[in-house]
C-alpha cells in the first residue's frame, strides 16, 4: 500500500487508544468500513492500571487496548501500525499519508491522537511517571490514600491539585519551588492543613523503585510516599495543520476544539478523547469515542440517503426523457 491510495473507506481513525478504538467498534458494528491508524504511543502506558473504569477496575492499559483491538478486528475493522504525517482534503473526504508512504482515503476522519504530558524538568519525575509521580486524583487518589503526598508547584493548577488530593490524605505538602502563592491560595491551603514548603526543588529521592522524598536545593529532604505534578497537556495536532486544525490554547495545555458530539469546524473531521478534552479519563474517552462514532455514522447515513434520492431522481428523469 506504500505510496498508493487504497480503496475509499467510510472512516479513517487516527489514534488507537480508548477513544479511537471505542469509535471504531461503534462504527464497525454499524457496518462501516473503518481503518484505525495506531502509532503505538498510548499516554497511560507507564501506569500500573486503569482506575475508575466500570467492570474493568485496575485493568492494565496494554490489556485494555488489546481487548479493544480484538473487538475492532472481530467486527471487520482494520488496524494499521503507523504514524500519520499529513492529511489533506479531497472531493470525497480526506487523504491520510503515513510516514512509510502508505496513503489512506476516507470519507470521514476522526482524530483520536490523545495528548502529550509535558513533565517538569526535575530529576526523578520522568523516571517515576505513572508510578510514584501522579497527576490525577480520580485516577490514583485511592492508591495513595492516607500516604504522605507531595505536590510540586510547576503549573498554575498545582494548588488545585493539592486541595483535591487532601481529600484522600491528611498528610499533603505543597512544594512551592520558589513560586509566589496568592494570599487566598495560602488561606485555603492552611484551612485544609496543607503545609507549604518554600525553596527550589533539586530532585526526587528514590529508594529502590519508589519515591521516598523531595530534595530541596539547600539539601533538605522532605519525606513523601508519592509526588503529584500538574502537567501541561498538549494535544497531538501537527499532522492536521494542513486541513486547518489548530490547537486551542488553555492554561492547562492545548486541545482541538469540537462540539458536544466531536465535530470540528473542518468538514468531515471529528475529534474525540484527550485530543479534544484534555481532562478526560479513560472512561470519558471511551464514551466520547462512542458518541463521535454514532454521529459520524449518522452523518454518513444522511449523505448516503441524499445520494440515493438524487440518483433516483436522475433515473426517473432519464426514464421520462426516453418515453
TrEMBL record:
Keywords: Flavoprotein, Oxidoreductase
InterPro entries, A to Z: FAD/NAD-bd_sf (IPR036188), FAD/NAD-binding_dom (IPR023753), Ferredoxin-NADP_redctase_2 (IPR050097)
Stored Gene3D superfamilies: FAD/NAD(P)-binding domain
Pfam family, one: Pyr_redox_2
Domain FAD/NAD(P)-binding: 10-289
PANTHER family, sorted: THIOREDOXIN REDUCTASE 1-RELATED-RELATED
Name of the protein in its database record: Thioredoxin reductase
Taxonomic lineage from the root: Bacteria, Bacillati, Actinomycetota, Actinomycetes, Micromonosporales
